[in-house]
Write a structure and sequence with these properties.
The protein is α+β, with helices and mostly antiparallel strands. The chain is built from 13 helices and 12 strands. It binds flavin-adenine dinucleotide (FAD) and iron/sulfur cluster (SF4).
Length: 338
């Protein structure tokens, strides 16, 4: 047992002051990842700052059409909110593809963004892991790496980001609002999570002491043509081996606009907006989707056990885009999954 202090923050100022006072301090939201990591002795904070009393549980529809989601909105509340099911059904589908109903009731929007990798070595302090202990090496390179990255990895880390929700948020170009000692700032979703590079211990571009306040989503034209396809070892309660968030704006069979983000393949949700722009104006056909899949996976490399992910991702991209183009209804309820 490692001792730690517990502070229940009543205001944002209290929370920021408590975080600033200790470089190891961690925010506690739903606790579904942080507490597990503390039990595994992976996270060793000397101070826990509980933010659950802060007023960050609102979902607001702003006058300009933006949806603003408070950081403490639960994954379940968000997935079933009428504004999300009607205007951002891709997001609802992605959330409902993740975890279990009990976990989604507890897990929060902010915590989902900051959940850590599911790399087996990261969870096992008896093995080397540059993310857990910088400079110690990477057990997964040359080890068991079936769930690991095929895109954007480095010689120091081949971990993937495990979230489903974040794949949809990447496709929908969300903006993350954070507040810290230097004030409030917006981080575009594409810049929020990092590739591992030389510093795999850093998952994202937040600074110590900052707190996620909200996520913003602009209006979009993708509600009629979207698909979240998650491929995993079990139909529920399993992380993605490969997932695809696909969204299309189609007119007379031609692509007006498109978004494709991949999960389970990289240290961050993988999206290439230049490739998406190049394919706009082309027919919404299997041939176009296959060409886009080749383009998105051009730099993919396996590490041995995970080589299968490359052809799997290619097929998943094509299938998700075909479903999106056809306007295939999505699974919207956990009951339908069973
Ligand atoms: C068995 C199991 C299966 C799962 N399956 C899936 C799955 O299939 N798909 C999927 O996407 N997820 C899955 N998850 C992960 C789950 O979605 C995350 O654990 C959850 O979203 C984290 O949210 P939380 O509020 O509980 O975060 P916490 O555990 O409270 O926090 C996680 C991290 O975020 C930080 N943090 C939290 N909120 C803030 C904030 N507002 N500002 C700054 N820092 C903050 C904490 O300090 C901590 O570092 C699974 C989890 C479990 C345990
Ligand atoms: S892949 Fe990353 S998280 Fe996994 S052992 Fe290597 S350094 Fe650690």
């Amino acid at each position: 047992m490692r001792p730690f202090s517990y502070t229940r923050a009543e205001t944002l100022g209290d929370a920021m002051a408590a975080l600033a006072a200790d470089p190891t301090a961690r925010v506690l939201a739903g606790g579904t990842n942080l507490i597990d990591l503390m039990k595994y002795d992976v996270e060793r904070p000397a101070a826990i700052v509980d933010i659950n009393r802060l007023p960050l549980k609102e979902i607001e529809e702003l006058p300009d059409g933006t949806l603003r989601i408070g950081a403490l909105v639960s994954n379940a509340t968000l997935a079933y909110h009428p504004a999300v099911t009607e205007r951002y059904p891709l997001l609802a589908s992605a959330i409902l593809a993740g975890a279990s109903p009990q976990l989604r009731n507890a897990a929060t929007t902010g915590g989902n963004l900051l959940q850590r990798t599911r790399c087996y070595y990261f969870y096992d302090p008896s093995t080397p892991c540059n993310k857990r202990e910088p400079g110690s090496g990477c057990g997964a390179i040359g080890g068991v790496n079936r769930i690991h990255a095929i895109l954007g990895a480095s010689e120091h880390c081949i971990a993937t980001h495990p979230s489903d929700m974040c794949v949809a948020l990447a496709a929908l170009a969300a903006v993350v609002e954070v507040e810290g000692p230097e004030g409030r700032r917006d981080i575009p979703f594409a810049d929020f999570h990092r590739l591992p590079g030389d510093h795999p211990e850093r998952d994202n571009t937040m600074r110590h002491g900052e707190i996620i306040i909200a996520i913003r989503l602009e209006g979009n034209h993708f509600a009629a043509h979207h698909s979240y396809l998650k491929l995993r070892d079990r139909l529920s309660y399993a992380f993605a081996l490969v997932s695809v968030a696909a969204a299309l704006d189609v007119k007379d069979g031609m692509i007006v606009d498109m978004r494709v983000a991949l999960g389970g393949v990289a240290h961050k949700p993988w999206r290439d907006s230049l490739a998406e722009a190049e394919f706009a104006g082309q027919p919404a056909t299997e041939e176009t989707f296959a060409a886009l899949a080749d383009r998105l996976l051009a730099g993919a490399e396996g590490e041995g056990d995970n080589d299968f992910k490359i052809p799997m991702a290619r097929k998943a991209i094509v299938r998700a885009l075909k479903k999106a183009a056809a306007g295939t209804p999505q699974v919207q309820s956990d009951k339908q999954i069973r």
